[in-house]
Amino acid sequence: MRVSERCSKSSDSTKKGALEMETANDNGLTLVETYYKDYGCRARALKQVGKRMMGYISAAVPVEIINAAGFIPVRIKGDPKEAITKAYGSMETLVCPFLLNAFDQVLKGRYDYLDGIVIPHTCDSVSRTYEVWKRNFPLPYYHFLNVPHLDGAPSLEFFTQILKTFIKSLEQFTGKEISKENLAHAVLAYNKLRQAMRDLYDLRRPDQPLISGVEMMKLLVAVKALPVDESTALIRQVAKEVKGRKTSSPQKPLRIMLLGDQIDDTALTEIIENTGAQVVVDDISVGSKLYYADMEATHDPVDGIAEYYLEKVSLPTFYRDKGGSYDENLELRFGHLKRFVSEFDVDAVILLVYKNCDPYGFEVPATTSYIESLGKPAFYVEDEYSSSSSSLKTRIEAFLEMLTQERR
Amino acid sequence: MAEERKQRMTATAAAAKVPKMVRANFTANLKAKEEGRPVAFSFIVNCYDEILRAMDIVPAWAESYSGICAAKHDAGRFLEKAQSQNFSRSLCTYATCGLGFEYWRNELGGEMPPNAPWGGIARSDFILGTGQMLCDPRYKWPQAVQHYMRDVPAYIGGFYWPPYDENIDQREVEHYYLKYAVEELKGAIAFIEKQTQRKMDWDKLEEITDLVDRTWDMFIDAYELRKARPTPMDTGDAMNTMVPLAFMLGTQEAYDFYKDLYDELKDKIERKEGVAEDEKYRLLWGAGLPPWFALSDFQYFNSKGAVFPVERTYREAERIDRLRLPKLSDPLERIALRWMRYWTHWYDAARKRKGSIPEVERLIEYIEDYQIDGVVFHKAFSCRTWHSGILLQAQILKEVYREIPILVLEGDIVDISSYNESATHLRIDAFIEVLENLRNKH
After folding, report:
1. What pLDDT does residue B295 have?
2. How confident is the model over B34-52, as pLDDT tens digits?
3. DSSP string spanning B124-153?
4. What sign results for the dihedral spanned by CA atoms B46, B47, B51, B53?
5. Where are the alpha helices (DSSP H) in B162-277?
């Protein structure tokens, strides 16, 4: 059955069919392809049988709380292959191009199955356009999550209160209490997901990675619009499938780490991998940033959730400083990259930052010099939320060609 | 020369004093550095004014210096330096101008970049930033600039205010915002004490907090005199007269400045002396930082009989009694709550008018109080915080209030390459025509 047919089947499925976890008797990678190409199709199908969907933006939203409230969290993404046609009249072009594109997708009905949207305070583009979303895409529920940018004890306590206000607003919306048990269950479920994803990342460590960067990108995207248990099962299924692969090429490819924010399309990875290089690890906000630490199961789960997002998710929206020297702070901000370079045997790093992105944009010199201090070349590109521009392709190919020449 | 004389006639004497005051601020930080007194890299509306003044710390105002470079049409070379470091041209140009400057200074081994406008800005002993609702560069710029001054420590405090939500009364959550902000202010004091080996003088802090309250009141009292017809002062001047509020808050000089401005405006009103020779249209500068390299555009408006008796930009103060603050004895609580209530005190009005939002309520308040005929927004391409959401505000204003002519100008705060004077003037001409046609209809 062709992918498009599978997805439309999924959307039209009967109540019974839609409720079945589709990974059980299925080919994981094929299903990933389906969910990637028709992002949200599973969520739409589940909506038809009465499940409730909560959209959210960015990696800073605690999906555990959304899950505990009885919603399936759906990460809102754009479609870089599609031109913006509807958003211009209501959102300024000076904002983050990803956000503009995602908003355009929303206006085009891509997320018509959502019951609400949660928007966090991650950057000026996001926070200043909160009312624009509310006004132009009215839904029964909206919440602005005032995530602080700092870590440390006062910020943690403050964020805990912010999360409690969020929980209260969800309770009011659903008319149902969110118990500590609900939250603890959600924390556990997402930790399982994180562990499964890390196990899959491990399969990229061999000289010949068992899963390509393109396949991985599709999976990272696909699981953002699935129930958590389905996501975990899907990841495990994919891991099982790729473990059986036999590697034939004797030559070790150039091993690339991809850095950036919401890179949620395969175009850039395709450019890289079409040259023979391979993306073996990432530090992007739909990828490893979400999976490389577990959430602590604290007595009050809200404490663990607050601590996880403020201290463990490495987004440039969070300012990390424990009062040490600049170099010590660099380790706090980028130390995980050093581990990735070593553990995944990275040869070079490509950093993609979208235009108009203040949090990432201000970090470029520090990030690239940190990578270079590890003895690895770092290549920075700025682009719109459209990873397939011809100039981008030419520049990346030239960079990789240069590295290949050096290797010979 | 004739045109220059005419501009001076319309400007207030208070505004004319400001360039010297700004220069004095920069001389002060350079002198302090020479004498070994502590200098702090600072940003306006960051909540630290009272603390800095109470501890005799000399602020080196980062955005102000970029604004000066822009006004002198000398920001390009610093922007280029920043770009050479891979700072995108789309980032806040206050920040990239400043970052280019510090990168260059670092490249020169600590020497001031050649021919730095007004002698440059002192290399700071420490950096004070904030994570807050106002803008990202307030914590990302400090972090980025440390790359070029690695020995300079930074303190970033969190000063958030409750966001507007029609279903959540901000007073229900205010207590934990306040607690957090007070903790962060304490953190700032501890940081400065550590850096300077000076102890906070709490009595002095309290006195300065009182002085800031009085300065806010005097600022508003003076600015509200601009309601008069003809208006005695417009936004062209206000882009100067904001300096004591933004950069000198907590000093007696700032208070005295607004007292003098108040007296001067009273006098002008008595003499019926307006900004424009023949005041025809009263406009609101609805939002947006100004193009510092093209402030003469305000005079262009004036030459068409259009004046700006009020603006939202740089009016970060309110009469204290309107904030309904409870009696608090801790100066840090007073500083934090004053700040929070300033931002949230339009929320109730927004809840009362169906479909409205606080930003629009603020516009409506000014439109009514200052008898406004049209609204002008300025959209600076490099600043997302002020300039995202302008389209929505304009739309809601028309929906919940009334049809009112709106002009959205486009440009930047520092980057002159974004500006085209003749195109801007053509747009202003067309807007004036709209106002004229509307008036003729009535």
Report:
1. 85
2. 999 999 999 998 899 999 9
3. PSEEEEEEESS-THHHHHHHHHGGG-TT--
4. positive
5. 170-196, 202-224, 235-241, 243-247, 252-270
pLDDT of residue A8: 52
Judged against a pLDDT cut of 80, whether residue B4 lies above it is answered with: no
Q: How far is CA A248 from CA A90, A209, A251, A256, in A?
A: 52, 11, 9, 20
What tens digit of pLDDT does each residue of B249-296 get?
A: 999 999 999 999 999 999 999 999 999 989 999 999 998 888 888 888
Exposure string of B154-182, with b = 16+ CB inside 10 Å and e = fewer, is: bbbbbbbbbbbbeebebeebbebbbbbbb
Q: Please report residues of A whose CB lies closer than 8 A to that of B147.
A: 326, 365-366, 369
Which residues partner with B407 through β-bridges? Answer: B376
Rounded Cα distance between B262 and B241, Å, is 12
- The amino acid that residue B297 corresponds to is D
Chain B residue with CA closest to A379: the answer is B86
CA distance A224 to A59: 10
Q: Give the closest of A143, A319, A368 to B86, CB-based.
A: A368
Q: In what order do the strands lie in the sheet with A255-260?
A: A278-283, A255-260, A348-354, A378-383
Residue A353 DSSP one-character state: E
- Strand order from edge to edge, sheet including A116-120: A71-75, A52-56, A116-120, A141-145
pLDDT tens, position by position, A270-327: 999 999 999 999 999 999 999 999 999 999 999 999 999 999 999 999 999 888 899 9
Mean pLDDT of B370-376: 97
Whether B244 contacts B223, CB under 8 Å: no
Average pLDDT taken over every residue of chain B: 93
Residue entry with tokens 């109470």: B54
* ipTM associated with this complex: 0.94
Helix axes B170-196, A153-174, angle to 10 degrees: 170
| Helix residue ranges, H only, A59-96 | 63-68
Tell me how close the Cα of A236 comes to any Cα of chain B, in angstroms. Answer: 39
- The shortest CB-CB distance from A361 to any of B88, B180, B183 is to B88
Who among B87, B158, B388 is closest to A150 (CB)? Answer: B158
Q: A270-280: per-residue pLDDT in tens?
A: 999 999 999 99
Give the pLDDT of residue B9: 47
Contact B265, B226 (CB under 8 A): yes
Residues from chain B contacting residue A148 (CB–CB below 8 Å): 131, 158, 160, 180
Question: What is the CA A272 to chain-centroid distance, rounded?
Answer: 20
Best to test chain A binding among B132, B141, B379, B384 (most A CBs inside 10 Å): B384
